[in-house]
Amino acid sequence: QVQLVESGGGLVQPGGSLRLSCAASGFAFSRSAMSWYRQAPGKERELVATIGSIGGSTNYADSVKGRFTISRDNFKNTVYLQMNSLKPEDTAVYYCNAVGRPVWGKGTLVTVSS
Fold first, then answer.
1. Alpha-carbon distance 5 to 58, whole Å?
2. Hey, is 31 helix, strand or coil?
3. Which of 93, 95, 85, 94 minimizes the C-alpha distance to 13?
4. Does residue 84 come out as left (phi exceeding 0), alpha (psi in the -120 to 50 range) or beta?
5. The pLDDT of residue 55
6. What are phi and psi of 40, to 5 degrees?
7. Measured between alpha carbons, how far is 29 from 44 in angstroms, rounded to an integer?
8. Going by C-beta distance under 8 Å and a sequence separation of 6 or more, which residues neighbour residue 7?
9. Which residues contact 66 (CB under 8 A, 6 or more apart)?
10. What Rg do the C-alpha atoms of the chain give, in angstroms?
11. Within a 10 A sphere around the Cβ of 50, how many other Cβ atoms?
């Protein structure tokens, strides 16, 4: 079955960086566009970034443009989210998702605080 396992979250100071990873299995990863979402406390889940199946096309939420970079390794069935210049408002649980599939992992918590 489809499995998504996110990792790499943690506590970081404002201005710091983190790299999230999402290991995928159970579907044709290399043919699937992938996305990262986040859900902050008391808020709805929001789309952060999307990458095409080959990795040539990417899209970002306005709130993270220029700070976050989504990438993928189709040999490792893994999608990444490099997050730089982190702000307290980036605090959330981050989830990856295979576009078009209603399957979610447990997410990884990112806390940006001094």
1. 21
2. helix
3. 85
4. beta
5. 67
6. -85, 160
7. 26
8. 20, 21, 22, 23, 108
9. none
10. 13
11. 19
Q: CA-to-CA distance for 76 and 70, rounded, in angstroms?
A: 15
Q: Which residue has the tokens 């986040």?
A: 38
What does each C-alpha distance from 97 to 12, 13, 74, 110 come to in angstroms?
24, 27, 15, 17
CA-to-CA separations, 33 to 16, 36, 81, 84, in angstroms, rounded: 28, 11, 14, 23
Are 95 and 81 spatial neighbours (Cβ–Cβ below 8 Å)? no
Q: What is the pLDDT of residue 102?
A: 87
Give me the sign of the Cα torsion angle 85, 42, 52, 10.
positive
- DSSP code for 107: -
85: left (phi over 0), alpha (psi -120 to 50) or beta: left
- The CA-to-CA distance between both ends of the chain, in Å, stands at 40
The answer to whether the beta carbons of residues 19 and 81 sit under 8 Å apart is: yes
CB 93 within 8 A of CB 48: no
* Ranges in the chain, pLDDT < 50: none
